[in-house]
Amino acid sequence: MRELERARWRCRRGLLELDVILQRFVDEHYARLDEAELRQFETLLNLSDSDLWDMIVQKEADDESSQSVLRLLRTVRQ
Question: Which terms are listed as keywords in the entry (predicted)?
C-alpha cells in the first residue's frame, strides 16, 4: 500500500493534463503492473512534464523499454 501512496504523490505534476492522466492510470492499472512495468512507470515519472506529455501523445515512442506502460497511459488519455 505504501508504494501506491508514493506513486499517487509522484503523479502530482505541474501540468493539469498529466495530473488527470496519471491519476487515472494509477487508479485503473497500477495494482496490476508487473515488476518490469513498475520500473518503466518509475522511469517515465522521472521525466520532465513536457517530455512525458510528448511521449504520451506520440503514436510511437522512441524508448522501446517503456512501450507497455505508454500504451496503457494512452488508453487512459482517450
Answer: Chaperone, Cytoplasm
